[in-house]
């Protein structure tokens, strides 16, 4: 354990003064990692634990990252989840919605007969190899991965937009529109502006605070159900239920509607009819 901690401190010093979020350490791939000890949970609660820490379950894009996650996993009491889900043996998607372009499965492919989720092995014979498991298995520890903190002290928002607590630029028009009309208005107010997308608890809290300041009750967010599942209208990757979401119990429910609204009091999301005139918040991405 001491050697593990010393290694992390050494890497953090050698790689320079680049800021990771609190409780995270920087590794050679330029990403930040945190090990949550005694966090034995199944897949989705594991992802939620990482979200509460500002990260996600690991996404592995090559040999270096596989080695990093493997080495961190040696501190675990059991195998650790990856942020990967497989619908077939040869079809796997990372929780951020991107396709898998590197794999290290023990048998060459996933084995969905064992389950749709994926963990990384720590036993010597299979160390660093990936295996499939039931997503409801609760014998896995948790490693969280996130990007270095982006420092943008001089960010300038467009006219009429204000900076949120997450350093993103928001506009909260004081009237209600249907979903498509709200999106059209957002796109007309500034370049690269859309109904707000939300990828973390921090962004959800910022959107909620902006909406509360405007005295809104419910707001459209830029998430809607399509033929291939839920998508963010601005193109932000989303892979429900593994990507960040904050739905109320019993939601989403497409019988109610294909669009999604936030309850401004609770910050929780719910399905809503797209034609229902509703308050909304625009997000301008830099």
From TrEMBL:
<feature type="signal peptide">
    <location>
        <begin position="1"/>
        <end position="16"/>
    </location>
</feature>
<dbReference type="InterPro" id="IPR016187">
    <property type="entry name" value="CTDL_fold"/>
</dbReference>
<feature type="domain" description="C-type lectin">
    <location>
        <begin position="28"/>
        <end position="135"/>
    </location>
</feature>
<keyword id="KW-1015">Disulfide bond</keyword>
<dbReference type="InterPro" id="IPR050976">
    <property type="entry name" value="Snaclec"/>
</dbReference>
<dbReference type="InterPro" id="IPR018378">
    <property type="entry name" value="C-type_lectin_CS"/>
</dbReference>
<dbReference type="InterPro" id="IPR016186">
    <property type="entry name" value="C-type_lectin-like/link_sf"/>
</dbReference>
<dbReference type="InterPro" id="IPR001304">
    <property type="entry name" value="C-type_lectin-like"/>
</dbReference>
<keyword id="KW-0732">Signal</keyword>
<dbReference type="Pfam" id="PF00059">
    <property type="entry name" value="Lectin_C"/>
</dbReference>
<protein>
    <submittedName>
        <fullName>C-type lectin domain-containing protein</fullName>
    </submittedName>
</protein>
<feature type="domain" description="C-type lectin">
    <location>
        <begin position="165"/>
        <end position="283"/>
    </location>
</feature>
């Amino acid at each position: 354990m001491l050697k593990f901690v010393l290694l992390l401190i050494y890497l953090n010093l050698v790689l320079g003064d680049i800021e990771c979020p609190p409780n995270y350490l920087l590794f050679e791939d330029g990403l930040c990692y945190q090990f949550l000890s005694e966090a034995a949970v199944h897949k989705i609660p594991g992802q939620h634990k990482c979200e509460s820490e500002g990260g996600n379950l690991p996404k592995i894009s090559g040999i270096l990252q596989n080695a990093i996650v493997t080495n961190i996993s040696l501190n675990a009491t059991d195998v650790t989840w990856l942020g990967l889900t497989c619908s077939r043996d040869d079809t796997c998607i990372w929780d951020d919605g991107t396709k898998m372009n590197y794999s290290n499965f023990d048998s060459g492919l996933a084995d969905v007969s064992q389950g749709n989720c994926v963990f990384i092995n720590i036993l010597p014979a299979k160390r660093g190899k990936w295996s499939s498991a039931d997503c409801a298995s609760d014998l896995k520890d948790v490693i969280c991965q996130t990007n270095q903190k982006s420092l943008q002290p001089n960010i300038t928002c467009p006219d009429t937009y204000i900076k949120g607590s997450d350093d993103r630029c928001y506009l909260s028009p004081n009237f209600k529109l249907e979903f498509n009309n709200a999106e059209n208005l957002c796109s007309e107010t500034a370049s690269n502006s859309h109904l707000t997308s939300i990828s973390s608890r921090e962004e959800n809290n910022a959107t909620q605070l902006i909406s509360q300041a405007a005295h809104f009750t419910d707001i459209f967010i830029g998430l809607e159900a399509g033929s291939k599942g839920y998508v963010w209208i601005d193109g932000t990757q989303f892979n429900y239920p593994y990507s960040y979401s904050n739905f109320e119990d019993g939601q989403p429910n497409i019988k109610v509607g294909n669009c999604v609204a936030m309850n401004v009091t609770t910050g929780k999301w719910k399905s809503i009819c797209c034609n229902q005139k509703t308050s909304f918040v625009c997000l301008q991405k830099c």
